[in-house]
Design goal:
Rossmann fold; seven-stranded parallel beta sheet; two-stranded parallel sheet; 9 helices; 15% strand; binds NADP nicotinamide-adenine-dinucleotide phosphate
């Protein structure tokens, strides 16, 4: 890694991605900020000499290749990939259509894979670089109404954790970022939050109640995305990138609770579990 790095950020048209782009620029880095609409990205981040705003829908592998090529043409290299873009298909499992569930996986899971696949040959050739992947507390803690989102983020964590040792021999570091609730546009209906398209009477009341709860949370989330963005730049610029950054007091509490719960579950069935080996 050099002092001034080239960052490649997905989902930079709003929310956390915009803040990461701004924070990296403020720290003196060059930034390739991408989003489905390049003009929206440039407007959100603000024009800057070291900014290249590009159109990239992460569900399109060819677009990912083209965006990486454009990044190299402008800056000659990529040092830090930030897999940030994502959305939220919210609903009880049976009320999400199979198409909606697949769409969630296409964006939150296969999307980062597409972009990482396009960037890795470059990082391997350089024998340096960082892959930073934004997952979620929902990558460790499942809950009603979040089966699609949690499934996509659990998958993303499993992929990233497995990828890290594969990249380490090439001098490429990997970090997952596990945010709690941050005040972005993720809970904005119709753009990032997509409600279930199937109506089932048994779930109608629960759906209405949960939708109201999410609407109430929109704009009230405790986490400040600008502070998270600064923290990510600080970690990236530091000596060794941590493998995981659990971001926000609510995320820390949520993961601690989950760890304790798993430990209780292990203890509750330990004897049975340890009796399962072949007798001879
Ligand atoms: N905010 C939170 O509380 C929270 C908590 C945990 C994890 N996260 C994660 O943080 C990441 C950033 O989300 P955010 O909170 O900043 O939400 P946000 O404000 O809604 O921003 C989402 C970004 O993702 C982009 N995006 C969506 N689908 C895309 C696609 N197919 N191709 C390219 N870009 C796409 C959006 O671009 P368009 O303008 O083109 O739609 C937008 O720039 C997500 O991975 C999210 O799951 C957020």
């Amino acid at each position: 890694m050099v002092d001034e790095n080239v960052w490649f950020i997905t989902g930079a048209s709003r929310g956390l991605g915009t803040e990461i782009a701004r924070a990296a620029l403020s720290a003196g880095h060059s930034v390739v900020a991408t989003g489905r609409d390049a003009s929206k990205v440039e407007a959100a981040v603000g024009a800057h000499d070291d900014l290249l705003a590009l159109a990239l829908d992460i569900t399109d592998p060819a677009a990912a290749e083209a965006a990486v090529a454009a990044a190299v043409e402008r800056f000659g290299r990529v040092d830090v990939l930030v897999n940030n873009a994502g959305n939220f298909y919210a609903g009880f499992f049976e009320t999400l259509s199979p198409e909606q569930f697949r769409a969630q996986m296409e964006t939150n899971f296969f999307g980062p894979l597409n972009v990482t696949r396009a960037v890795l040959p470059l990082l391997r050739e350089q024998r340096s670089g960082q892959v930073i992947t934004v997952t979620s507390t929902a990558a460790f803690v499942g809950g009603a109404f979040t089966s699609a989102y949690a499934a996509s983020k659990f998958a993303l964590e499993g992929w990233a954790e497995s990828l890290a040792p594969e990249l380490e021999p090439f001098g490429i570091a990997s970090m997952t970022v596990v945010p709690g609730f941050f005040r972005t546009e993720l809970l904005v209906e119709g753009s990032s939050t997509i409600w279930p398209e199937l109506e089932i009477a048994d779930y109608a009341e629960g759906t209405a109640q949960t939708q109201a709860a999410f609407r109430g949370m929109n704009g009230q989330q405790g986490g400040d995305p600008a502070k998270l963005a600064d923290a990510l730049v600080q970690l990236s610029d530091g000596d060794a990138l941590p493998a995981r950054f659990v971001a926000g007091a609510d995320a820390v509490a949520g993961l601690e609770q989950k760890q304790a719960l798993v430990q209780q579950q292990i203890e509750a069935t330990r004897a049975l579990s340890e009796s399962l080996s072949h007798d001879a």
